[in-house]
Amino acid sequence: MDKSSRHKRGTAENRKPEHLPQAQSNGSSESARLFRLLADNAREMVSRHTADLTFLYVSPASVRVIGYPPEDLIGYRLDDLVHPDDLSSVLSAFAIAHDTDKTPNAIFRCHASDQTWRWCEIFCRGAVDSATGIEEIQATVRDVSKYKQIEKAIERVAKEWRGTFDSAQDAIMMLDRQANVIRVNLATLRLLKCEFRDLIGTPLIEVARKRLHLDDPFHVATAWADKRQVRTDLELEERSIWLRSTVDPILTEDGKIDGAVIFIADITTEKQAEKRLLRTLKEVRKLSSHLQTVREEERCSIAREVHDELGHTLTALKMDIAWLVKHIPDDDQDIASRGAELTGLVDQTISSVRRIVSRLRPPVLDDLGLDAALEWLAADFQRYSGIDTSVRLSDIPNRLRGANASCIFRIVQEALTNVSKHAGATHVSIHGEVQDATYHLVIQDDGQGFEFESTAHQPGFGLLGIAERVRDLDGEMDMNTAPGKGASLTITIPTAAIQ
Fold first, then answer.
1. Contact in structure between 106 and 127 (CB atoms under 8 Å)
2. Which of 128, 187, 211, 383 could bridge to 192 as Cys pair (CB 3.0-4.6 Å)?
3. DSSP single-letter state for residue 219
4. CB distance 199 to 262 below 8 Å
């Protein structure tokens, strides 16, 4: 060791005790020999000192622990290597070991041979040299730098965690296994309007009753019983706020409950936005229902006007053409032929008017009711589409009319239109019956089907229109389809809709 690189209190020669030989040269004692054997092979640095901390013996492990070989330390004092801030703890440990039979310890920074400070831990024990009878201190020193680094890392993480914990905007409460509050952050104090002393050590149920005026609002018991996270939304009406609590149980390695962490977020803004959205959606649906009603009324009005105005006009025109044909000369075949053509054209126009009127508002729906109207619709669909169509309806009251009947008729009409446009089917069936106090109406085809749940699939206005009409009836719609397997549309509505 470079003796000029360290602070020394004298040279090795004038500081070695004159009345003591070097302790390690004394091999006459069996105990000294065993001590030397164990010390020389120990991983920790073993040393012997006089009462003033002078090294009498140093084991070879000193090279590994503090970087100095034993010969560089003999005759020097340990406090020459100790950091000034840690010197008092080392001196105190030596004093206790000298004056008592205890084995004190101290952690200190030692100036190593590479000019760095190493964290070391020393254990001291008072002893008497068997050969000389002089009191000395036996010490064991180990390098704890890695442990200190780990300790500092843990402290840093703990500090960062405390900073994050205390600065979190959401309220956080930690509970012990008896559901007593053991730690809270600042946001909790703001939410509950109290101080730390009002919460720490208090049962959670008392906190909830006193601060929120609620019994078990967070359902901690449920989280512990099921050993899973429990989330709850609760409204504090008197404070006009909404809270969302999340309870995470803390489990030991053997699965036992060791406490819980409760996160409480203020979701008032979110709930207000949700209410506005629901209110807007309700208004939109109300508007959609109104538009459906208006459109149905307009269809009835147009159908009636077309039937009355065009029907009467075409009938009168047909009668006039027949009169003209009757009064032309018998030998004028060209005019007779032209008259017959005009009569046929008028008959064709009358048929078109009747077909248009039927599609706008089939008279059979008002005259004979929903069951007859659906049978007529299926027959008409089969006629113009060429797709085989079967109808099997039960439990529909005879001559069901009104807004609900019109709504169900339009649902089936729109479903059949979708089949003709997109399904590529050869057969479609319409089946309806009462099941479990609800009416089930199923429109099923054997067409090409599609990926209904796929994100790439965008529902068309046909399905959206059906969904809105079903919603007007307080019912539900379910589409079951897959590529190559056809499609089945199931409408479930309350039986009140068909009564």
1. no
2. 211
3. -
4. no
